[in-house]
Design brief:
The structure holds 2 protein chains of 2 kinds. Chain A has 7 helices and 11 strands. Chain A has a 7-stranded mixed sheet. Chain A has a two-stranded antiparallel sheet with strand order 1-2. The chains are: A alpha+beta, B mainly alpha.
Chain lengths: ~280, ~90
């Protein structure tokens, strides 16, 4: 509140705007703190003639003043140390985020799974890539006559999907199995095969051209071996689990060395950090 | 010929495991393990027998590499008639 005398003898009483009042209070408070700090500094580190006077007039004995100094220095050191640790931890977090973003960018430039596919599922229904948009997809290429690798990988795939199913906050993953052996793996063969794994597993097959097109989209290597007397053969193929986002973009891949827990953790991370296009 | 189902796969893998355990116990001699070999060949498709046999050979080879080590193959030697290569270059 300000009081002023006007030219005609009357008194003008005006109130300062409240913002200015707040600023003044802060400045007064800040000034007070600075003054307090200054006085403390003067007491702790007296300079010049004050030093001699302070020493002779001082009532605290030398050893306890040294202890006070030590405690202060220790306190300051711990605070500074904590500050550094905090800063380091924050920088680590930022670095990890950057690394994750760079990996997604790298995978995006590799641009796997950009195309579309049109295949027939194990119930005989035609499915295209569009049908799976909006779902998180975990995809595996294999064949039903596979000795041990495909059953192991499909067991791993089922374990990952079941683990993620247990979390009610996560969206339900769609496991897919695409054959690299369309000559032998028709609809009924696939139906018999996928029964042994996760109930939501969908098997996909088609003509050799359709299957090749889908495989090429993910740069899958597949090469049929020599046939024996029974006409049986083994198809050599790349062994990977592919993660596709609801936007239909390839996000990550997992090889044989990854355990179900590692794959599930990675997928949980991707889901949490997913930014829809 | 239909692909083996879950039970048939498991039967084949168990037969293979028994055979491999027998071979491990008898330092890879086939003679005492003939019964297991017969059972393995009966329970698994022919392609799988070939595949698992090759796989065992590979695993044994890998084990040998890891325990006994190996000498890397020598690369091409740069020597011409015993003369030092730099000196051997002649301008005609």
């Amino acid at each position: 509140m300000r009081v002023a005398a006007k030219a005609d003898g009357s008194v003008l009483i005006s109130r300062e705007p409240s913002a200015m009042l707040g600023v003044r209070r802060i400045l007064r408070g800040g000034g007070g703190v600075l003054l307090c700090l200054h006085r403390t500094a003067q007491y702790l580190y007296p300079s010049g003639p004050e030093r001699v006077l302070a020493r002779s007039l001082s009532r605290t004995p030398y050893s306890s003043r040294a202890a006070l100094k030590l405690r202060t220095r220790l306190g300051v050191t711990v605070l500074v140390g904590a500050g550094f640790l905090g800063a380091w931890w924050w920088v680590e977090q930022e670095k990890q985020q950057l690394r994750r973003r760079q990996r997604v960018e790298q995978l995006r430039t590799v641009a796997l799974g950009q195309g579309t596919f049109s295949l027939v599922d194990h119930t005989g229904r035609r499915r295209t890539k569009q049908d799976f948009l909006g779902r998180w997809v975990l995809l595996y290429f294999g064949f039903t006559h596979c000795p041990d690798i495909c059953p192991d990988e499909l067991d791993k795939l089922s374990a990952v999907v079941s683990a993620l199913d247990r979390d009610p906050d996560l969206p339900r993953l769609q496991p897919l199995f695409i054959t690299v052996d369309p000559e032998r793996d028709d609809v009924s063969a696939l139906a018999r095969y996928v029964r042994d794994f996760h109930p939501r597993l969908v098997g996909l097959t088609g003509t050799p051209e359709e299957v090749q097109h889908a495989g090429r989209d993910f740069r899958v290597y597949a090469s049929a071996g020599p046939k024996d007397e029974d006409g049986d053969y083994i198809v050599d193929h790349s062994v990977l689990l592919y993660l596709v986002s609801p936007d239909g973009l390839f996000l990550d891949y997992y090889n044989r060395t990854k355990s179900p827990e590692q794959v599930a953790d990675s997928i949980r991370n991707h889901i949490r950090n997913h930014v829809p296009l | 010929m239909a692909a083996p189902n879950s039970e048939q796969r498991k039967a084949c893998w168990d037969a293979r495991d028994l055979l491999w355990r027998c071979l491990d116990d008898n330092s890879d001699r086939m003679q005492p393990c003939q019964l297991f070999q017969g059972d393995f060949e009966a329970k698994c498709p022919a392609q799988w027998v070939k595949y698992f046999t090759k796989r065992r050979d590979f695993l044994k080879y890998k084990e040998k590499m890891e325990t006994e080590g190996f000498t890397p193959a020598k690369g091409p030697q740069m020597k011409i008639n015993g003369i030092h290569p730099e000196v051997a270059v002649q301008f005609v």
